[in-house]
Amino acid sequence: MNIYGDWGNALVLQQRLRWHGYTPELLEYNVGDEFPADVDLIVGGGGQDSGQLVIQDDLLSRESTLKELAEDGTPMLLICGLYQLFGRFFKTRTGAVIPGIGVLDVETHGTDERLIGNVTVSSTEFGDILGYENHSGQTTLGPGVKPLGTTPKGTGNNSSDGKEGARYRNIVASYLHGSLLPKNPAIADFLIRTAVERKYGSFTPGAPDDHFAVLAREHAARRPR
Amino acid sequence: MLYFSVPLGKLVRRVSRLRGGGSALPGLVVEKIDPGFMERTLSTLPLGVAVVSGTNGKTTTTKMVVELLESQGLKVFTNRTGSNFTRGVAAALLGDVDWRGRLDADIAVLELDEAHAVHFVNRVPPRYSLLLNVLRDQLDRFGEIDKTAQLLQHIASKTTGTVVLNREDPRVARIADTLDGPEVRYFGLDDSLLSTFPNDDDLRAGPGSPVPALPAKPHADVVLRRVGTEDADFEYDGATVTTGMKLRGVYNIFNAAAALVLARCVAGNGTTATDHGGLLKALSQVAPAFGRGESVVVDGLPLDLVLVKNPSGFRLGLKSFSAAGYATMVAINDNYADGRDMSWLWDVEFDSLREGGVDQVTGSRAYDMALRLQYDDVAVGAVNPEIAPALATFIKGAKDKPKRVFCTYTAMLAIRRELSKITTVEVVS
């Protein structure tokens, strides 16, 4: 499940960890792989709707492991397709139900409407989050999760409630694909700080040079939808 | 109606060209006053219509097919301006028909945008279609690449004679399973070259790739076996032939295999016997379509334009051209024709630019591009979203070096406009 540039998120986490003075080890997990024993941070991407069908059995077989990690406070970034499948279910346009693993109290319904375009998410935790969405599934949040933020620009989780993404324990879930972390270093550093504190007890940040990120954010904020 | 629509359309064409206007307006006019014009005119061609589509490489591949067929003595009509919508085809026809609406050609070879091709083939079922690839471009238009594949499938399903498919692109190759009318032919790639063509699924996928591999590869009429610096090996009819190539870039040369398959199908069905020597000679002389791997001379040194539209293409561009000794500029725009979503830049590795760095970054997404390079530890000289001053700074700063510019489509157009002020740039119209 990685077809929309979500690799950038893994790349940004690795490089920022180095800039903060740590040495990251990246483990890639694909369908059928052995699940790594010692995981500090999980990143999941998006893909075609058809890709969700391909991974669903494998994901369901990891349900208890991923739930334990989530409840224990492991930081996770879940984008688009995996955001949907970490919820309770994805009901497609044709009425077929793809069961999710229920880590997040959310449900998703496939629609004929495609939500595509630039998004600004207003978040009390991370400030303005800038990104791009492209999805036809519409997600609604249950009482067990909070939204990541509201959407002054763009659509977000669904076309009715003006909310985007989900926050639960140390999980950040969002429809903003691909370039979420590069232009939103505050979220990257939240995930890193949480992972490092859980592993070593404390986190001393370095001083990454974010001037291109600031310029890219300013520019994105001015772009039309 | 029939008798005055063509002269009127031709008149509009002349006037709009005098005004320096776009190529589609005369097409729009003739479509309005004579809606059957395009179908009627194309239906007179003895060898019918061949459609070239896919997300990438249409323009250069169409040019190759045209030149290969011309080498066989065929008269070919094509939409040379790259106006690849139905209206653009009608406009191009107006330029080529005589005042009575007759088209003097054996076959039409048309580049069609994948979405517009669907409307075109509903009106004019092609005798041949050549489907190149389904890459991640323009997801903002189509939503998912599976949707793009469906558009190509529709073109194939309307084809009456032969469909030529890319054996190495699973989304294209699988179109064959849905067809029972047309004959299917393939072009293919040697296993040793496969790694240079990662498709969107393979970019990051392990063994659990969402697109299952085909059980067995079908036979390909033409297989690209090897790419050298100025030549290439193609295998067909059980033998391998080496030919010089003016085209650069593995992707262009792979598309040459595609063009060969289509040209051989057409020529084989045509009135003239296939002249293999002539085909190869024509292939070796094909120059890139404008802006695609084009090279111009600035301050006595080459400046190469490399068009990049998706992660595979950008990766191939970086792989095909060594950065050593070159000054580099990257120009990324996110206009409609480029695709609005540039997150794919994160699926390109820029390590090969690390040693020399990038001298100048420009375009509407210059800061995103600079940020991307920063995360790959590539030093960035200067960043300026405005293309004209950025290009001037780049050329001034790298006076004694050959230059290479990686650019998205509309950035390429802007750069060509600026370059034409200081040097001679080939004009195609």
Could you explain the architecture of this structure?
The complex is a heterodimer of chains A (225) and B (429). Chain A has 225 residues and is of the alpha/beta class. Chain A is built from seven helices and ten strands. Chain A has helices at residues 7-19, 49-61, 63-71, 81-85, 180-183, 185-200, 211-222; strands at residues 42-44, 76-79, 89-91, 97-99, 106-123, 127-141, 149-153, 163-164, 166-168, 171-174. In chain A, a hairpin with a 2-residue loop joins strand 9 (166-168) and strand 10 (171-174). Chain B has 429 residues and is of the alpha/beta class. Chain B has 16 helices and 15 strands. In chain B, a hairpin with a 3-residue loop joins strand 7 (222-227) and strand 8. The longest helix of chain B is centred in the middle third of the chain and has 20 residues, at 250-269. Chain B is globular, with a radius of gyration of 22 Å. The A-B interface holds A 1-8, 11-12, 15, 28, 30-33, 47-51, 54-55, 58, 114, 116-118, 132, 134, 136, 177-179, 182-183, 209, 212-213, 215-216, 218-220, 223 and B 136, 139-140, 143-146, 200-201, 203-210, 311, 334, 340-347, 364-365, 367-368, 370-372, 374-375, 380, 383, 385.
